[in-house]
């Protein structure tokens, strides 16, 4: 996207966001991931309508996998809701980081409700990369368009996976789900320009496998907490010495 891109209306910004989503590398990731999720929903005995509605309401691939797996295995609704809620907590720091880019002077929180719900890893990464170059008044509309573009892709390929589930090998369906962490790792490495970001990413790649090897519970949470804290401490120490 050109750095000097401007819009004449919020509608134009919205559709520009959708076009940006459909030309993003995350489209490939979402397509593969949701083919796998669609097949998983079919095997769990859930309907295509349920798959579509859950994609819109949950809008988080890992949480949706937890939801489908839990319901398919007969887990109680309370336990399922708790597991999905805990999975979604990882998105809270992303929302906190994104909202300052979307706030407009003199405007309330109403304009931020949709972007808050729409926040996902794909939308968050692309928003942090693109929003600073856009006029502030058009950022919420662009962000909503970006999310709608990603969501329509997810719904479409989720239904494709649902229809193809009868002939889709289980191993292939499971493998497609790994496109999500792979795409996240590549995009995060691409966007890590500051030393702080690179250090946190590098520490996370080292600490994560160690915690998994020793079977430490909540390994993803501890990896982020330890790597982020150490990287931030080193960043502050370097700043104080400078």
Q: How would you describe the overall organization of this protein?
A:
The longest helix has 26 residues, at 139-164. The protein has 13 helices and no strands. It has helices spanning 10-22, 26-43, 48-58, 61-72, 77-88, 92-102, 113-118, 121-130, 139-164, 170-176, 179-191, 195-213, 219-241. Helix 2 (26-43) packs antiparallel against helix 11. By secondary structure, it is mainly alpha-helical. The model has no long low-confidence stretch (mean pLDDT 85).
Set out the fold topology.
Elements lengths: L9 H13 L3 H18 L4 H11 L2 H12 L4 H12 L3 H11 L10 H6 L2 H10 L8 H26 L5 H7 L2 H13 L3 H19 L5 H23 L1
Global shape:
globular
Put simply, the count of helices is 13
Number of domains as seen in the coordinates = 2
* Helix proportion range: over 70%
The assigned structural class equals mainly alpha
Beta strands, count: 0
β-strand percent reads: under 5%
Q: Secondary-structure element order, as H and E?
A: HHHHHHHHHHHHH
- Distance N terminus to C terminus? 36 Å
Task: Explain briefly what this protein structure is.
This protein is mostly helical.
Features:
mainly alpha, 242 residues, 13 helices, single chain, 0% strand
């Amino acid at each position: 996207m050109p750095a000097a891109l401007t819009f004449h209306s919020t509608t134009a910004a919205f559709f520009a966001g959708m076009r940006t989503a459909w030309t993003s590398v995350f489209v490939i990731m979402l397509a593969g991931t949701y083919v796998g999720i669609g097949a998983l929903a079919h095997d769990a005995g859930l309907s295509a309508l349920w798959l579509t509605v859950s994609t819109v309401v949950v809008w988080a691939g890992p949480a949706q996998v937890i939801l489908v797996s839990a319901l398919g295995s007969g887990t109680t609704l309370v336990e399922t809701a708790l597991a999905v809620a805990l999975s979604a907590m990882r998105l809270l720091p992303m929302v906190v980081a994104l909202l300052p880019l979307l706030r407009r002077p003199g405007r309330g929180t109403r304009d931020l409700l949709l972007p808050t719900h729409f926040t996902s890893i794909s939308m968050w990464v692309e928003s942090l990369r693109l929003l600073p170059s856009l006029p502030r008044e058009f950022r919420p509309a662009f962000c909503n368009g970006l999310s709608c573009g990603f969501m329509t892709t997810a719904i479409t390929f989720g239904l494709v996976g649902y229809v193809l589930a009868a002939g889709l090998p289980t191993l292939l369906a499971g493998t497609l789900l790994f496109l999500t962490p792979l795409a996240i790792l590549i995009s995060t490495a691409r966007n890590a320009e500051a030393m702080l970001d690179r250090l946190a990413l590098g520490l996370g790649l080292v600490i994560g496998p160690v915690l998994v090897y020793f079977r430490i519970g909540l390994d993803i949470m501890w990896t982020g907490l330890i790597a982020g804290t150490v990287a931030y401490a080193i960043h502050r120490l370097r700043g104080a010495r400078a």
